[in-house]
Design brief:
- With 202 residues, this protein is of the alpha+beta class.
- Helices cover 29% and strands 24% of the residues.
- It has seven helices and ten strands.
- The strands form three sheets. Strands 3, 4, 5, 8, 9 and 10 form a six-stranded antiparallel β-sheet that branches.
Length: 202
C-alpha cells in the first residue's frame, strides 16, 4: 500500500490502517474467504518491482492506470473514478486558463513519478517542477503551495478537500476543466490472470 488519503491512511500513533482501498481489499478478502496481510508500505518508484519480486501479491492502495504502468502490471476494473484538477493558493488568479501554467517562472509541486509529475512533464514542460521524493506524503505538495515554495499542483477534489478542511482559506481550485480522469484500480502482477479475475469480480 501507499499512504494517500482518502484512499489509504495509516494512523501515525497506532499504525492502524484505514481508507477506501483498505476497506475494499478487506471486503474482497472476506467475500473470498481469504486473509489479507498488509505487508509493505511502498513509494511510487517501487510498486511494480515489489510485485515482480513477489514481495506482495497486490498493490491495494489504489492506482491510476496509464500505458507505461499497464506494461508493468495488471490493473483491475476501476472501483471509482477521479477527476484531476489544478489547485493553488487562495489568492491565485493567474491560471483561469491552464495554458498559463506552461511558463518558466511557474513552479509545479510534484512527487517524483506520481501522476502530477507525469502531467507536469507532459502538459507543462516549460514550467519548473518542485519535486519531492517518492515516499513524501502528497499533502506536502499543498504545504509547498501555501508556503509559496510552489504555485500549483494537480490533484483530485478528495485529497484537496481534506487539506482545505484542515487549512481553511489557504488553497483553492483554479479551474473546473479536468486535466485527467482516471479509474482507481487494484494492481496485480502481469500474467496472474486468476488473481486479476478475482479482483475484478470482487
Amino acid at each position: 500500500y501507499l499512504v494517500y488519503p482518502p484512499y489509504f491512511m495509516k494512523d501515525a500513533n497506532s499504525g492502524a490502517l484505514s481508507g477506501v482501498f483498505h476497506d475494499i481489499m478487506e471486503q474482497i478478502g472476506k467475500n473470498a474467504n481469504l486473509k489479507i496481510e498488509w505487508t509493505e508500505e511502498v513509494g511510487y518508484d517501487n510498486i511494480f518491482s515489489g510485485l515482480d519480486t513477489n514481495r506482495y501479491d497486490v498493490f491495494a492502495g489504489g492506482l491510476w492506470p496509464n500505458a507505461s504502468r499497464a506494461k508493468a502490471a495488471y490493473f483491475s476494473i476501476p472501483a471509482f473514478y477521479s477527476v484531476i484538477l489544478p489547485w493553488g493558493r487562495a489568492g491565485e488568479s493567474r491560471f483561469g486558463n491552464t495554458s498559463a501554467v506552461n511558463k518558466a517562472d511557474i513552479r509545479i509541486a510534484v512527487i517524483d513519478g506520481a501522476m502530477e509529475d507525469i502531467i507536469a512533464r507532459t502538459d507543462f514542460p516549460a514550467a519548473q517542477r518542485i519535486s519531492l521524493p517518492t515516499n513524501a506524503p502528497f499533502v506536502q505538495n499543498f504545504e509547498n503551495i501555501v508556503a509559496n515554495k510552489a504555485d500549483i499542483t494537480f490533484a483530485e477534489p478528495g485529497s484537496a478537500g481534506k487539506f482545505i478542511e484542515n487549512n481553511p482559506g489557504k488553497l483553492k481550485q483554479l479551474s473546473d476543466k479536468p486535466l485527467r480522469i482516471f479509474g482507481n484500480s487494484l494492481v496485480s502482477p502481469r500474467g496472474d490472470n486468476e488473481l486479476k479475475q478475482l479482483l475484478d469480480a470482487g
